[in-house]
Structure formats: C-alpha cells, structure tokens
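Pilot study result, target chain (133 residues):
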Amino acid sequence: MTNLDLAVADTTALLAFTGALPFEGPPPTDTLLALDASLVDLIDVLCAFHEGRRADVFGDLAYIGPMVNRWLPANQLATAVTELLLVHPHEAATDLASLATARELGVPLLTTQQHLASLVQDADVIVLPRRPS
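Predicted structure:
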C-alpha cells in the first residue's frame, strides 16, 4: 500500500491498530485524523476487549494517541452526519461521522468495514485487510 498524505481513521481502524480487531495496521500515513466521537467508542470497546484491565486499556490509548495527529470535533460536521444518518438510519452514527469527515475533507477513510465504501459514491474508502490467521 502506498503512503497516504492524509487520512481519516474510523473507530474500527483505530481498534485494528491496537490489535483489538484482527485486521492489518494502518498504511503509512503522514497525517492521521479521527473524530473525537470515535474516541468514546474506542474506549468502550477497549474496556470490554481488555475485560476492564486498566493498564491494558490505558496502554492502547497511549499507543493510539501519538498516531492520531488531530482529533476533530464531531459537532463541526453535524449537517453532513445528519444527512447520512437520514439516508442510512441503520448505520452507527460514529461510522457515518467518520465517513462524512473523510468526504468533507476530500481524503480517504481508513476502516475495516467493507460496506462503508458503498454508502456514498464520492468518498475514497480504504478497507484494511484481515490479518492472516
């Protein structure tokens, strides 16, 4: 995979980077962005994944922290997210928020979710490959 100048990572991509999901880590990216709303989902899943082991949860958060160059405030994309949620009401709001962010910025979205690529035509979605078993 070639180097990306700029990309948005959704919650599943962030979880893949920590190893909590069985997908490859990020492609080389100069600047990685993520929504602050994804951070809440990330913490929730990491707490369950690590069965409440505080050191492991904080260790993964410390690992992700330097990878993300900027946490973007979700409230700045409220209109774009609302439009996507109205069209795709059964999708997770934070997934659509990450997709909306990538589309609004004109940069790729990094995700583990193949179906996100089919939700909008004008967004570049890079699906991280599964790690070999």
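One observation from the pilot: The helical segments are 11-18, 36-49, 54-67, 78-87, 93-105. A full batch analysis is planned for the follow-on phase.
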